[in-house]
Every structure is written in C-alpha cells, then in structure tokens.
Specification:
single chain, about 240 residues, alpha+beta, Immunoglobulin-like, 2 domains, four-stranded antiparallel sheet, 6 helices, 8 strands, elongated
C-alpha cells in the first residue's frame, strides 16, 4: 500500500512539474520612432516604449496582426504590415523586430532564468482597460470637466494675453482635469500663434478623455507643416 501511495505521489509530482515547465515567452519590438499596434491571439494591444513582452505563454500557434505608423501621400496612418501566425516553442523566447516599411526579423533563444521577475504582469489588452487613461494627478477617473469647470478654465486661459504665459498657465489648469476632444479643440483656438497652438495640443493630449478622436484637432491648423507635426506626434504615442 505504501509503495502504491509513493508511486501515485511520484506520478502526480512529475505531471505537475511537466505542466509547470510548459511555457514560452514572446517579445515584439520596433526600430522605428512610432509605437506599433498589434492583434495577438485575437486581442488588441498598443505597444509601450516601442516594445512588449508576453511571458509564461502556453506553447503553440498564435495569430498575430501588426500595424505600423507610416507616412503616405494621402497622410499618415496605421498600416497593416503583417497578418499571419507565430509558433511559440516550449522553453523558448521568440523575439520579433519590426523595421522600416514593415520588414521583420526573428530570433529565438532559450528562456533565461530571471529571479528578479517573479512579479511580472503581462500586458492587458486594450479592450480590457475600459478606455481609461491616467493623467498627471495619478487618478483613473476620466470624467471630463463639466460645463462650469470648463468655462472657468477657458476664461482663465483667454484672460492671459501673453501666449507664452497662457501656455504656462495651461500646464497648471490642465493637469488636474480631463477634457473632451471638443473642449480641448476650443481651448487650442485661444492661441493665435501656430507654434504655441501646436505646443498646447501636444501638451493637452495626455488630458484627453476620448483620445481616439484627438486626431481631429489637427484641422485647426492653417499651416500644413504644423498639422503634419501633430499627426506624427500622435502616431508616436
């Protein structure tokens, strides 16, 4: 009976050990200045700092679609540069690098032991983040300023006649609030100087509650160069 119990214990231990060792890592990065957007295993991700690593993945085949920010004659936009599958091998780290014009390079190596990474958390898909962005007051409440708050902010900015000082004031009044794209577009139009207007729109992006619509602010510029610079800036975020 003791021998049977010992045998069963060994089988269970070996089974658990085998399952625990079935893991793969996957890293995707870019050599470009703009972040990539990807659909990995059916879920959407926006790369941060031009790189993303997924650890402790189950070995197997996963779908991967890659979008890269590119400047074209019709304007800058995210372009699908790859649509296929990747294979993750047990105990291997697959690294994919996206270069200019969507060219890719692959490398696979053994997973290196890393005792400092025990609390690593894999990236969350965009659709699991609830559309919440974090602003400089370290809060996650993305409720935009109400009519009264917005009116006070607009009045304060409009009352500053020196546009450099108005820009400095904007850094203060924006940082504790969220604003819609429409509200920020109106605030941007309190600046007459195109350069100051561009600096404001870059600053204001971090405090926008509906970032998906922010590209529409580019239409306030008369100079196409400033418009392009803002679009390129948004593409790098």
């Amino acid at each position: 009976m003791k021998q049977l119990t010992l045998l069963l214990s060994c089988i269970i231990f070996l089974s658990i050990s085998s399952v625990a060792q079935d893991r793969s890592n996957f890293t995707i990065s870019t050599t470009g200045n703009s972040n990539l957007k990807i659909i990995y295993a059916g879920k959407k991700y926006s790369l941060q700092d031009r790189s993303q690593t997924f650890q402790n993945q189950n070995p197997g085949t996963y779908s991967l679609v890659i979008y890269q920010w590119q400047n074209r004659q019709a304007g800058a936009e995210y372009v699908k540069v790859s649509d296929g599958n990747i294979k993750l091998t047990n105990q291997k780290h697959l690294e994919l690098t996206v270069m200019r014009f969507g060219k890719t390079a692959w490398d696979e190596s053994d997973i290196a032991r890393n005792d400092w990474n025990e609390n690593y958390t894999n990236p969350r898909p965009n659709n699991e983040q609830g559309g919440v962005y974090k602003n400089n007051n370290n809060g996650y409440n993305q409720q935009p300023a109400d009519a009264t708050q917005y009116a006070n902010v607009k009045k304060a900015l409009s009352g500053e006649y020196n546009e450099e000082e108005r820009l400095n004031l904007a850094k203060v009044v924006l940082k504790n609030n969220w604003f819609t794209t429409v509200q920020l577009k109106e605030l941007a139009q309190t600046f007459y100087n195109e350069d100051k207007k561009l600096r404001f729109t870059k600053l204001a992006y971090d405090f926008c509650s509906d970032k998906g619509n922010y590209f529409t602010i580019a239409e306030i510029f008369y100079n196409s160069g400033y418009k392009k610079e803002l679009i390129d800036y948004l593409g790098s975020k």
